[in-house]
Design a protein that fits this description.
The complex is a heterodimer. Chain A is mainly β. Chain A contains no helices and 11 strands. In chain B, strands 2, 4, 5, 9, 10 and 11 form a 6-stranded mixed β-sheet that branches. A 5-stranded antiparallel β-sheet of chain B has the order 1-3-8-7-6, with no helix packed on it. Chain B is globular and about 45 Å long. Chain B starts with a strand and ends with a strand. The chains are: A mainly beta, B mainly beta.
């Protein structure tokens, strides 16, 4: 396993269109996180999953955003009716939280850069 | 919302010099981590320091933590051109179980050959 992967790496879309991003975490990791990063800023937490359960959503995640993690493996983040303000880098990270093997360290994917025109 | 601030926002040094970056945060923490991000790429974990630790070393990295001042510093010794990147501190708040990271705005480090 070579790490967290994200697809696509870049996405250009027109305002009002829907987009979907995919994240494949490290295979044994049961926690998966989504962050959003705008230019010149640090990443901001959006949501996280433990296995297939979505356990927390940030207030940044408006009703137009939905995330899923079916079967506790890969995850998708969908943005409906995109707006120019959605332009950002969307980062996925995973970690292991399982008893004595738990780790606070998160492994990040390369990100999906979204541009809304 | 972001946890705090890194200082300076940008730092330019010559290869071989040491680089020091500071981070402040606002809440009680379980641990503080430093990550590196090369331009347009994902983040890479560098080092983690727990709230009951004051100093930690890893290779050319030295991290200090002062919980009374809610601040941390990252020292990179004998810098190399390959160290050019943005550096972020991130905290995991105490009392929570989600392990989510709260990042600062980052320091852009440029190491000139």
């Amino acid at each position: 396993d070579t790490g967290v992967s994200q697809d696509p790496r870049h996405k250009i879309t027109k305002r009002g269109q829907n987009v979907t991003f995919r994240c494949d975490p490290i295979s044994e990791h049961n926690r998966l996180y989504w962050y959003r990063q705008t230019l010149g800023q640090g990443p901001e937490f959006l949501t996280y999953f433990q296995n297939e359960a979505q356990l927390e959503k940030s207030r940044l995640l408006s009703d137009r955003f939905s995330a899923e993690r079916p079967k506790g493996s890969f995850s998708t983040l969908e943005i409906q009716r995109t707006e120019q303000g959605d332009s950002a880098m969307y980062l996925c990270a995973s970690s292991l939280a399982r008893g004595v093997r738990s780790s606070y360290e998160q492994y990040f994917g390369p990100g999906t850069r979204l541009t809304v025109t | 919302s972001q946890q705090g601030e890194e200082d300076p926002q940008a730092l330019s040094i010559q290869e071989g010099e040491n680089a020091t970056m500071n981070c402040s945060y606002k809440t009680s923490i379980n641990n503080l981590q430093w990550y590196r991000q090369n331009s347009g790429r994902g983040l890479v974990h560098l080092i983690l320091i727990r709230s009951n630790e004051r100093e930690k070393h890893s290779g050319r990295l030295r991290v200090t933590l002062d919980t009374s001042k809610k601040s941390s510093s990252l020292l990179i010794t004998a810098s190399r051109a390959a160290d050019t990147a943005s550096y972020f501190c991130a905290t995991v708040n105490s009392g929570g179980s989600n392990y989510k990271l709260t990042f600062g705005k980052g320091t852009l480090l440029t190491v000139n050959p």
